[in-house]
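Handoff note, outgoing to incoming analyst
You'll be picking up this chain. Sequence as last confirmed:
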Amino acid sequence: MKDAWARDTAGTKATAAVYMTITAQAGDRLVGASTPIAGRTDLMTMHSDGGAMEMKYLEEIAIPADKPVSLDPSGLHVWLADLDEPLKAGQTFPMVLEFEKAGKHQVVVSIIEPAATPPMSGIPM
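Most recent structure output, in case you need it:
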Protein backbone atom coordinates (compact mmCIF):
# COMPACT_ATOMS: atom_id res chain seq x y z
CA MET A 1 0.00 0.00 0.00
CA LYS A 2 1.23 3.46 -0.81
CA ASP A 3 0.89 4.87 2.68
CA ALA A 4 3.40 2.54 4.35
CA TRP A 5 6.79 4.24 4.07
CA ALA A 6 10.36 4.37 5.30
CA ARG A 7 13.13 6.85 4.62
CA ASP A 8 16.22 6.20 2.50
CA THR A 9 18.99 5.15 4.92
CA ALA A 10 21.68 7.11 3.02
CA GLY A 11 23.99 4.16 2.54
CA THR A 12 23.85 2.73 6.06
CA LYS A 13 22.19 -0.60 6.72
CA ALA A 14 21.92 -0.94 10.48
CA THR A 15 18.38 0.29 11.26
CA ALA A 16 15.30 2.03 9.85
CA ALA A 17 11.72 2.83 10.87
CA VAL A 18 8.45 2.18 9.03
CA TYR A 19 5.45 4.49 9.31
CA MET A 20 1.82 4.31 8.16
CA THR A 21 -1.76 4.99 9.20
CA ILE A 22 -3.85 1.99 10.22
CA THR A 23 -7.66 2.02 10.37
CA ALA A 24 -9.77 -0.95 11.50
CA GLN A 25 -13.56 -1.31 11.31
CA ALA A 26 -13.47 -3.34 14.53
CA GLY A 27 -11.04 -2.72 17.36
CA ASP A 28 -7.84 -4.78 17.14
CA ARG A 29 -4.21 -4.79 18.21
CA LEU A 30 -1.07 -4.81 16.11
CA VAL A 31 1.04 -7.47 17.82
CA GLY A 32 3.95 -7.90 15.42
CA ALA A 33 5.54 -7.28 12.05
CA SER A 34 8.06 -9.03 9.84
CA THR A 35 9.96 -8.37 6.64
CA PRO A 36 12.56 -10.40 4.76
CA ILE A 37 14.91 -7.38 4.58
CA ALA A 38 15.54 -7.13 8.34
CA GLY A 39 16.90 -9.54 10.90
CA ARG A 40 14.56 -8.14 13.55
CA THR A 41 11.41 -6.00 13.76
CA ASP A 42 10.01 -4.33 16.86
CA LEU A 43 6.96 -2.22 17.68
CA MET A 44 8.18 0.99 19.29
CA THR A 45 7.19 4.49 20.36
CA MET A 46 9.03 7.72 21.02
CA HIS A 47 8.49 9.41 24.38
CA SER A 48 10.01 12.31 26.26
CA ASP A 49 12.05 11.53 29.36
CA GLY A 50 13.09 14.76 31.03
CA GLY A 51 13.16 16.61 27.73
CA ALA A 52 15.15 13.97 25.84
CA MET A 53 13.33 11.79 23.29
CA GLU A 54 13.78 8.05 23.85
CA MET A 55 12.45 4.95 22.10
CA LYS A 56 10.43 2.42 24.09
CA TYR A 57 9.63 -1.16 23.03
CA LEU A 58 5.94 -2.10 22.87
CA GLU A 59 4.30 -5.53 22.94
CA GLU A 60 1.31 -4.24 20.96
CA ILE A 61 -0.30 -1.15 19.46
CA ALA A 62 -4.04 -0.71 20.10
CA ILE A 63 -6.14 0.04 16.99
CA PRO A 64 -9.55 1.41 18.10
CA ALA A 65 -12.61 0.79 15.90
CA ASP A 66 -12.96 3.33 13.07
CA LYS A 67 -10.23 5.61 14.50
CA PRO A 68 -7.03 5.95 12.45
CA VAL A 69 -3.79 5.27 14.31
CA SER A 70 -0.74 7.02 12.89
CA LEU A 71 2.65 5.42 12.99
CA ASP A 72 4.84 8.47 12.41
CA PRO A 73 8.31 9.84 13.19
CA SER A 74 7.14 11.57 16.38
CA GLY A 75 5.61 8.47 17.97
CA LEU A 76 4.59 4.92 17.12
CA HIS A 77 6.56 3.00 14.48
CA VAL A 78 7.86 -0.40 13.37
CA TRP A 79 11.62 -0.54 13.99
CA LEU A 80 13.78 -2.56 11.60
CA ALA A 81 17.15 -3.82 12.82
CA ASP A 82 19.94 -5.75 11.10
CA LEU A 83 18.95 -4.63 7.58
CA ASP A 84 20.26 -6.83 4.76
CA GLU A 85 21.18 -3.73 2.72
CA PRO A 86 20.63 0.05 2.79
CA LEU A 87 17.14 1.31 1.94
CA LYS A 88 17.17 3.28 -1.33
CA ALA A 89 14.59 5.88 -2.36
CA GLY A 90 12.30 4.73 -5.15
CA GLN A 91 12.39 1.09 -4.09
CA THR A 92 9.81 -0.91 -2.11
CA PHE A 93 9.84 -3.92 0.19
CA PRO A 94 7.17 -6.25 1.62
CA MET A 95 6.15 -6.26 5.26
CA VAL A 96 3.64 -8.48 7.06
CA LEU A 97 1.67 -6.89 9.89
CA GLU A 98 0.18 -9.28 12.44
CA PHE A 99 -3.02 -8.33 14.22
CA GLU A 100 -4.53 -10.13 17.19
CA LYS A 101 -7.96 -10.57 15.55
CA ALA A 102 -7.49 -9.83 11.84
CA GLY A 103 -4.39 -12.02 11.48
CA LYS A 104 -1.63 -11.31 9.00
CA HIS A 105 -1.82 -8.59 6.33
CA GLN A 106 0.91 -7.84 3.81
CA VAL A 107 1.75 -4.24 2.93
CA VAL A 108 4.25 -2.80 0.48
CA VAL A 109 6.54 -0.20 2.04
CA SER A 110 7.69 2.65 -0.22
CA ILE A 111 11.15 4.08 0.43
CA ILE A 112 11.26 7.87 0.14
CA GLU A 113 14.04 10.47 0.04
CA PRO A 114 15.12 11.72 3.49
CA ALA A 115 13.57 15.18 2.94
CA ALA A 116 10.46 14.02 1.02
CA THR A 117 6.94 14.56 2.33
CA PRO A 118 5.55 11.15 3.35
CA PRO A 119 2.24 9.72 2.07
CA MET A 120 -0.42 9.22 4.77
CA SER A 121 -3.76 7.95 3.44
CA GLY A 122 -4.56 5.05 5.79
CA ILE A 123 -4.75 1.28 5.53
CA PRO A 124 -8.35 0.07 5.72
CA MET A 125 -8.78 -3.38 7.25
